[in-house]
Specification:
The complex is a heterodimer of chains A (196) and B (182). Chain A has 196 residues and is an all-alpha fold. Chain A contains eight helices and no strands. Chain B is an all-alpha fold and 182 residues long. In chain B, 80% of the residues lie in helices and 0% in strands. The longest helix of chain B has 24 residues. The chains are: A mainly alpha (196), B mainly alpha (182).
């Protein structure tokens, strides 16, 4: 999909540039933007290093576990078909906690482990369970509270203002994800037999 | 009432980054006895590597979007979409990012970088873009990786739920930024 979007942008640019007589500007933009990309990336290095350094301290000092503990009671409610002492619950809360802190690199391996453990409870191995759909819907709704390093790096001090708006928007999307999952799982076309 | 909330949130927002900069090392060193300096340097190295790793993606997206804008195609697109998007109060400037966000992390980072470049960090478009970027995920990518890792082929309603969440997140980003920053 991305392949077609990317090619489409370039293709349309050249065609439209030819029609509007701005083909020289199109050439110039291509050359200038490639230079700009590298300048931007170099400009990011310092703040990215600062932010990821601080977040590494959060990771090493066990902030993930602390948040995971607080999330556990909520998660048990959201996954009624998973036994509350099953290891999958532990992996799911750890994954959410890492996502909340914006620690994508730590979140993905734990999330994949959660999927493996949910798959053990699955009776139809090629079909997603309700628990998996719930987990991924919440996961893709991004429960992030700490901003991505790249946003902080690009915005500098203005990033301060974005924390509150992000918490609001991410909260709304997570609530929407949970409601959507609960409603969609009741729809006939998505029903499956003998699932956990 | 709403004005007071806005003033209040703007006041505390000034302290969020400083609070994280002091709070996290405090928790690590004083409470958990973590070697915070070593941890910091470890993480900072990662920041260096990531900045260099994104260069090819940035070049790909910024060149394509730069050409698209220079040709006049972007103006045309915005011109056509404005009346439709006006109905729901959605700024056309943020549409490319909203479409790209569920598809590709590097692509949407490129488009967000372009917003910062075009309009500056204080512009409403940049703030809406940053909020979108932080509050939604690359849904298609996450579903492919997570389901792929355990061999699930029938994902049932996972994609529908993920996209509903993305749309709600994107619209929430627009409205909250308009309330707080306009």
């Amino acid at each position: 999909m991305l392949n077609y979007i990317w090619f489409g942008l370039i293709f349309i640019s050249v065609v439209v540039g030819t029609i509007t007589g701005r083909i020289d500007q199109v050439t110039e933009a291509a050359i200038n933007m490639s230079k700009t990309s590298v300048e931007i990336a170099f400009g990011l290095i310092g703040i990215m290093a600062l932010w990821l350094g601080i977040m590494k301290i959060a990771e090493d000092s066990g902030l993930i576990q602390l948040i995971a503990k607080a999330l556990k009671p909520i998660m048990i409610k959201l996954f009624p078909k998973v036994p509350s002492d099953h290891p999958a619950i532990g992996s799911i809360v750890l994954n959410m906690a890492a996502n909340i802190l914006g620690l994508g690199n730590a979140a993905t391996p734990i999330g994949l482990k959660a999927m493996k453990e949910l798959q053990e409870l699955n009776k139809q191995k090629d079909t997603a369970t309700d628990a998996m759909c719930t987990f991924l819907a919440i996961n893709t709704s991004s429960v992030q509270i700490i901003l991505p390093a790249s946003v902080v790096a690009l915005m500098g001090a203005t990033a301060n203002q974005i924390f509150i708006t992000t918490i609001f928007a991410t909260g709304m999307s997570t609530i929407a994800a949970i409601i959507a999952v609960k409603l969609l799982s009741k729809m006939k076309s998505f029903k499956i037999d003998n699932e956990i | 009432m709403i004005d007071n909330v806005i003033v209040f949130t703007n006041q505390i927002s000034r302290y969020i980054i400083p609070f994280l900069l002091v709070g996290i090392p405090f928790y690590g060193l004083i409470i958990k006895k973590v070697k915070v300096y070593e941890s910091f340097v470890d993480g900072a190295k990662e920041g260096f590597e990531i900045s260099l790793k994104i260069i090819p993606y940035l070049v790909a997206i910024l060149v394509a979007i730069g050409m698209f804008r220079a040709s006049g195609a972007m103006e045309q697109l915005i011109y056509f979409l404005t009346p439709i998007l006006n109905i729901i109060g959605f700024p056309p400037e943020n549409l490319p990012l909203a479409i790209m966000r569920p598809l590709s992390g590097s692509g949407s980072l490129g488009l967000f970088t372009d917003l910062v470049n075009q309009y500056g960090v204080d512009s409403i478009y940049t703030k809406i873009g940053a909020t979108m970027f932080g509050s939604t995920e690359t849904t298609f990518y996450v579903l492919a990786v997570y389901f792929g890792s355990v061999g699930i082929r029938k994902s049932r309603y996972a994609l529908a739920a993920g996209l509903i969440a993305d749309i709600v997140g994107i619209l929430s980003a627009v409205y909250i930024c308009k309330i707080l920053f306009l």
